[in-house]
């Protein structure tokens, strides 16, 4: 019995030792796993830190390259602008602009009479080039809000009709009415002048005159078979432009532009405009104390010339603009669209006004500027002659 008890006791001790060994192995395993997790986490953190440092170094290198490129670009632009201000470049630029302006004024009527079917292409190419260049020039001067005016909207509608919806009678009547109405008469109101050596003034004449010439050519000079093939809206309308519908749709498109302009410029950019950081057509005209709009608004009692530009002045200004558009489109369907010679006389009259304004500019303004520029050029060349005289005196 004693031996059996001893053997049982020894078996119990062995089982306890095995259980203890099992417990120790399990905890050792957990501790080993925890150590592995810690080491892996530590390695991940180290790699994250290394990648963060590499990213920061890469970011700093990229920023440094951007700064260098920006500095180099600014230096190139500065050198280019300085070259643009040199007298030789200015003279060459004005000569090229003068040549292109005269050639365009001479060849455009020739093309309209001899090859009327290619005039829309010529108008489109020039419009895309001139308006794009003007936008970038005006943006540098903070004048690019001018590009959202009604005249540019009319040019856009004309291009849309020519190349996207040539069969739309509504769009054709709207384009014909707007180009012969507010767009052409703006030459008189804005005093656009045909100054051939000025790129800005030539662009202004193009914007207000070339769409009128294009629509006139399509209406009167393009053969009927080409009208039917390329611009079917013209023969579908016939020889008479319906006055009621043309005025209705024209006013509708005008109000669409007006709503968009108020939403994006007057309301959307009111802080920049009010602070003077951006210049618009309405602020330009309302700030002109001698202008018709400013004086009329002053007489109506909406503020003096030194009161600034408030919302009442803006409201009255756009009401006056609406009346101007309405009055200018009335003769289009009554006279211009039905009678070729009346339309041609109107077209020639607007061109004559621009030529007269250009002549006034050359005689009254440019002559004085030219004399001053000659004097400045003489002073520019004088130091070289003086140094040569001084060197000759020293040698003698």
UniProtKB/TrEMBL annotation:
One of its GO terms (molecular function) is acyltransferase activity. Residues 1-21 are annotated as: Disordered. GO terms for biological process: phosphatidylcholine biosynthetic process. Residues 45-79 form a coiled coil. GO terms for cellular component: membrane. Its main location: membrane. Residues 11-21 have a biased composition (Acidic residues). Belongs to the GPC1 family. The keyword Lipid metabolism applies. The chain crosses the membrane at residues 96-112, 118-138, 145-164, 170-190, 202-222, 247-268, 314-337, 343-363. This is Glycerophosphocholine acyltransferase 1. Keywords: Acyltransferase, Coiled coil, Lipid biosynthesis, Lipid metabolism, Membrane, Phospholipid biosynthesis, Phospholipid metabolism, Transferase, Transmembrane, Transmembrane helix. It is a multi-pass membrane protein. It is found in: Membrane.
């Amino acid at each position: 019995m004693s031996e059996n008890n001893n053997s049982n006791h020894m078996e119990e001790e062995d089982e306890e030792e095995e259980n203890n060994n099992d417990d120790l192995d399990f905890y050792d395993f957990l501790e080993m796993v925890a150590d592995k997790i810690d080491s892996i986490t530590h390695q991940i953190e180290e790699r994250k830190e290394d990648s963060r440092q590499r990213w920061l170094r890469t970011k700093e290198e990229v920023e440094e390259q951007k700064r260098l490129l920006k500095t180099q670009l600014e230096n190139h632009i500065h050198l280019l602008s300085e070259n643009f201000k040199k007298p030789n470049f200015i003279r060459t630029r004005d000569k090229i602009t003068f040549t292109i302006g005269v050639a365009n004024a001479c060849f455009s009527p020739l093309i309209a009479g001899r090859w009327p079917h290619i005039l829309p292409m010529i108008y489109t190419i020039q419009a895309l080039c001139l308006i794009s260049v003007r936008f970038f020039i005006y943006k540098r001067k903070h004048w690019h809000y001018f590009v959202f005016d009604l005249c540019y909207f009319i040019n856009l509608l004309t291009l849309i009709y020519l190349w996207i919806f040539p069969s739309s009678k509504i769009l054709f009547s709207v384009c014909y009415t707007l180009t012969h109405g507010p767009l052409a008469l703006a030459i008189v109101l804005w005093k656009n002048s045909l100054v051939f050596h000025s790129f800005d003034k030539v662009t202004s004449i193009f914007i207000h005159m070339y769409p009128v010439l294009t629509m006139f050519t399509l209406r009167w000079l393009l053969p009927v078979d080409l009208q039917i093939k390329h611009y079917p809206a013209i023969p579908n309308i016939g020889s008479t432009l319906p006055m009621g519908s043309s005025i209705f749709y024209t006013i509708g498109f005008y109000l669409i532009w007006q709503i968009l302009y108020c939403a994006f410029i007057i309301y959307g950019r009111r802080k920049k405009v009010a602070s003077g950081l951006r210049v618009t057509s309405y602020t330009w005209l309302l700030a002109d104390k001698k202008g018709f709009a400013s004086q009329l608004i002053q007489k109506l009692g909406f503020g003096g010339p030194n009161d600034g530009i408030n919302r009442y002045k803006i409201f009255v200004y756009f009401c006056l603009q609406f009346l101007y558009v309405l009055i200018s489109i009335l003769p289009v369907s009554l006279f211009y669209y039905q009678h070729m010679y009346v339309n041609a006389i109107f077209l020639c009259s607007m061109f004559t006004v621009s030529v007269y304004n250009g002549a006034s500019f050359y005689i009254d303004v440019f002559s004085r500027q030219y004399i001053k520029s000659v004097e400045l050029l003489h002073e520019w060349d004088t130091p070289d002659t003086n140094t040569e005289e001084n060197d000759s005196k020293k040698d003698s």
